[in-house]
Design a protein that fits this description.
With 410 residues, this protein is an alpha/beta fold. It is built from 16 helices and 11 strands. The longest helix has 23 residues. Bound molecules: flavin mononucleotide (FMN). Flavin mononucleotide binds next to loops.
Length: 410
């Protein structure tokens, strides 16, 4: 670790020390007041960069399969996300003519900086898809070596690559050659395929290799592939990764459900940035909250019902514009369920969103439950992961598993 990285960590740890002493005095209140400092421990020189792309704050919106479409990305940006990623796309679906190719290769002028994430098994196909995405206007190409879904692993994609450093690095090299420095490359990994020593060796071989080839950053989710979403993300491992790579850029992932948790991950692990995932689904306000704490300002109050209604309506309108009314109703139903967790009548609102079958139904939920003239009880801040569980943890990580995949969220 160089002197600057070391200084940065010490400053953050000092900050964390203050935070913990607050927590000892009053655990509950501390959650909301811990970051009321007159100045932030984070300095602008810590600006997160992906090649030439400079982000003013180090918390980004992750790739989220089934969620991080253009409407979600637009809403996240509106509330302060400096960078967002499209959901993971199979390389073949980018290179082969079809609806997915057309959709994925349309990058809107207001959707920057945006990362395009790819998954696949074959280095050549990966390279061709990366080239097309780069040409289409993605600012960053992200390679997925983390997906734990059984079907994906069975086809030697996603997290499966963590068990085969040679192939994984072949893919990164091929993508690097294909985009030929026009687009920075980043890689998303889990901390290994499982808890074994061999898995850790493979992880660090891939980590060193991807940075040597020229990836500008890695995002590490502190769970193993085998773990899926069970148990905590190992933040100690993230600290180890950051120490290992020194000046290499590392983003941490896992268990970021509040702005306070984001600050804590930055402070405790020394990572350069963090990637918000479940914590920002139906919760775009988290970016604004992170910005406040990061700047040393108090945490803003939780979004009022009126503000929630405004954000959901804007998200819905974007979704109708992008997907058309029928598909928007289907897509927004699952977002609505997540948004409902902020509402003082969470259970009833959730049930109302669950029953949505059409765009008109969705609008009716908004009119009924988000009426700005309503006399709503105070909003409590949402805590924890909520009930969106991305299943897909697979005990069987062998290729071409014959077991039928369970129905999964991602
Ligand atoms: C519904 C869902 C979809 C996801 N899709 C992707 C994806 O497309 N690409 C990816 O790299 N990670 C994906 N992830 C993993 C997240 O980016 C993140 O690493 C993981 O959820 C851990 O962070 P969290 O505990 O803060 O949610 C997904 C996770 C969830 C819950």
């Amino acid at each position: 670790m160089n002197a600057e990285t070391q200084r940065r960590r010490e400053r953050r740890v000092l900050f964390l020390g203050k935070r913990l002493s607050y927590r000892n005095e009053n655990t509950h209140r501390a959650t909301f007041s811990i970051f009321h400092f007159s100045h932030s421990p984070f300095s602008p020189s810590e600006m997160l960069r992906f090649g030439d792309i400079e982000l003013d704050v180090p918390f980004v919106q992750a790739a989220l399969s089934g969620y991080s479409d253009l409407p979600m990305r637009r809403i996240a940006r509106r509330y302060g996300a400096p960078y967002t990623l499209n959901e993971v796309v199979l390389d073949k679906l980018v290179t082969q003519r079809g609806k997915t190719r057309k959709r994925v290769l349309t990058v809107e002028p207001d959707d920057h900086p945006v990362g395009g994430q790819l998954m696949g098994a074959n280095p050549d196909e990966f390279g061709a898809a990366a080239f097309d995405m780069c040409e289409a206007g993605y600012d960053v190409i992200d390679i997925n070596f983390g997906c734990p879904v059984r079907k994906v692993l069975g086809r030697c994609r996603g997290g499966f690559h963590l068990s085969q450093p040679g192939v994984a690095l072949g893919i990164v090299r091929r993508v690097h050659d294909a985009v030929d420095k026009r687009c920075p490359i980043t890689v998303k990994l889990r901390r290994g395929i499982d808890e074994s020593a061999e898995s850790a060796r493979n992880f660090f071989a891939i980590l060193d290799g991807v940075l040597e080839i020229g990836a500008v950053a890695v995002t590490v989710h502190g769970r193993t592939v085998k773990q899926g979403y069970i148990g905590p993300s190992d933040w100690g491992f993230l600290e180890r990764v950051k120490r290992h790579v020194g000046d290499g850029i590392v983003l941490g992932s896992g268990d970021l459900f509040s702005a306070a948790a984001v600050m804590r991950m930055l402070a405790e692990t020394g990572v350069d940035g963090v990637s918000l995932a479940r914590g920002c689904i139906g919760n775009p306000w988290i970016f604004d909250e992170c910005r406040a704490l990061y700047a040393g300002r108090p945490l803003p109050p939780p979004p009022s019902v009126t503000e929630q209604g405004r954000a959901i309506a804007a998200h819905f309108q974007e979704s109708v514009r992008v997907h058309g009314a029928r598909l928007a109703a289907r897509v927004m139903r699952k977002f609505g369920i997540k948004y409902s967790e902020h509402h003082p009548h969470a259970r009833q609102v959730r049930d109302a969103f669950v029953a949505v079958r059409s765009a008109r139904d969705f609008e009716a939920v908004l009119e009924c439950w988000y009426d700005p003239r309503g006399d709503w009880p105070p909003v409590k801040r949402r805590q924890g992961p909520g009930d969106l569980v991305a299943a897909g943890a697979s005990p069987d990580i062998s290729p071409r598993s014959t077991q039928r995949p369970r129905r999964v969220e991602r």
